[in-house]
Specification:
It is built from four helices and eleven strands; from the N terminus they run ββααββαββαβββββ. The chain has 217 residues and is an alpha/beta fold.
């Protein structure tokens, strides 16, 4: 699903657990980011993992903390419930046309003694489940479609493409702008108002940069 044009084409260092192989690590350089390259499968993870992170000292990362945000994201065709969201911007579909072989796999797994898990995104991933996908009208539906495209022409939003962000610019401890490279030259974009003298002004109060790269830490 990824190409060199759409993907940074990263590889890991040689992995001891993979017989020294370097593993491909796709990262999207398109509107929608890596969500535009993946297999569309919606997976939250297991609640126990989030709770373990919280126990390790990461306050705010427990399952009960992140669940409300997962629910706000989702437009789940199975309907809203204690664990699922039904009116969020990102479509999550469990009812879509499947290859008959997939249903045979679900049946075979149960015959082999595996428990059918009707919803692996409920916080419990154990068992055999049917995939849930980010689809709308049978086509990929990613974060670009869900969040940005609906407001792409808004007056207080500027999209910058074909640019690579070098660093975030700070006013004290508050991010106020970015330094990016576009068409081979560095450019600074500041939030307005700002007491800085910008190289290039961006009139909107807020702006969004779709940078073809990551911001170094």
């Amino acid at each position: 699903m990824s190409t060199v044009k759409q993907d940074w084409d990263y590889y890991t260092v040689p992995q001891k657990g993979a017989h020294g192989r370097r593993l491909h690590l796709p990262r999207g350089k398109v509107l929608g980011g890596s969500h535009a390259l993946n297999a569309c499968i919606w997976v939250r993870g297991d609640s126990a993992d989030y709770d373990a992170w919280e126990e390790m000292g990461n306050s705010g990362w427990g399952w009960s903390d992140v669940l409300p945000f997962f629910k706000k994201i989702e437009n789940f065709d199975g309907g809203a419930s204690a664990t699922r969201g039904g009116d969020g911007p990102l479509d999550v579909r469990e009812n879509f046309r499947r290859n008959p072989l997939q249903e045979s796999m679900v049946e075979a797994a149960q015959q082999a003694g595996h428990t059918l898990n009707p919803d692996y995104n409920s916080g419990d991933v154990e068992g055999i489940s049917r995939m849930q996908l980010n689809l709308r009208d049978g086509e990929r539906f990613n974060v670009w479609h869900a969040y940005l495209r609906p407001v792409a022409d808004h007056k207080n939003l500027t999209l910058i493409t074909d640019a690579r962000v070098e660093k975030v610019l700070f006013d004290g401890n508050r991010a106020r702008g970015v330094l990016l490279h576009q068409e081979g030259s560095p450019k600074k974009y500041w939030q307005i108002p700002s007491f800085f003298q910008p190289v290039h002004w961006v009139a909107p109060k807020f702006f969004c940069v779709r940078a073809w790269g990551r911001v170094p830490s």
